[in-house]
Amino acid sequence: MQPHYYHDLSQAEKKHWYFSARRKFIQDLILRYILPNNKKRNLKILDVGCGTGGTTDFLAGFGKVIGIEPSDIAINLFKANYPHLKVVKTDIENMGKDLPDDDFDLATVLGVLYHKEVKSPLEALKNINRKLKPGGWLIWHEAAHPVLKRKHDQLSDGARRFLPKQMRQLLKESGFQVFFESHVGLFIFPPAFLLALLSKIKSGSKNKKIPAEESSIDRKLPPKYLNALLYGMSRIETKYALNLSPLPIGISYLILAKRIS
């Protein structure tokens, strides 16, 4: 990804409603499915594609966490912000030689497999499966629906958006069983669809190269009142998804799965 993108991410993930709401959703899943009945928070966690470390720091509240990240820029920001945490320079394809197999209770893969640097999402998931203990958990969250592809995807080197059925099939083929799944961001789907449509109209039939210094609106912190409102709306959605019914549509898709083979 473009170097400035990591600096934007490092700042945004601390307070941006999207990242805050996603961390809270992950917390809900961990406490409900992985650590029920107030069990001790001593999980061994692998944060795959940890970026600049905001989520890794959050996951440390549930046990010992190791982040893996291929970008030197992201790693430097990670170490500057969270010197108490461990990050390993490697990628999904090569982590086999850097980390032991059957070693982690939980792996998180959050907006990673849609990047163009990941050549095969299936092989990536198989690698992650091997790192988990038998019965270990995976929380996987990705950008959904190719129709929503827009400028932000190009800025973040996004190569693909997944359909939910594709994610389920990839998990099945890589030895996982799905325990929970839902769309995320139903309320933001209409404006995201509009932005994607406008992006296609502007670019015409060919993809135009975006200037290296251009930033995505997705990484800019909204005004405080709007940030709080969007966070609150997102929390209402996730509570509905957890307690009543999975959301039928959204801008992304989140799955909790368990290693079965």
What do you see in this structure?
By secondary structure, the chain is an alpha/beta fold. The chain has a single domain (3-259), classed as Rossmann fold, CATH 3.40.50. It has helices at 3-15, 17-34, 54-59, 72-81, 121-131, 151-155, 164-173, 189-203, 224-243, and strands at 43-48, 63-69, 86-89, 104-110, 132-143, 176-184, 252-259. A 7-stranded mixed beta sheet has the order 3-2-1-4-5-7-6, sandwiched between helices. β4, α5 and β5 (132-143) form a beta-alpha-beta unit. α1 packs across α2 (17-34), α1 runs parallel beside α4 (72-81) and α2 packs parallel to α9 (224-243). The two termini are 33 Å apart. Mean pLDDT is 91; it is low at 210-215.
Short overview:
With 261 residues, this protein is of the alpha/beta class.
Give the C-alpha Rg. Answer: 18 Å
CATH topology: Rossmann fold
Poorly predicted tracts of residues: 210-215
Q: Biggest β-sheet, characterized?
A: 7 strands, mixed
Q: Give me the number of helical elements.
A: 9
Kindly report the spatial arrangement of strands forming the biggest sheet.
Answer: 3-2-1-4-5-7-6
Oligomer: single chain
- The secondary structure category is alpha/beta
CATH class: Alpha Beta
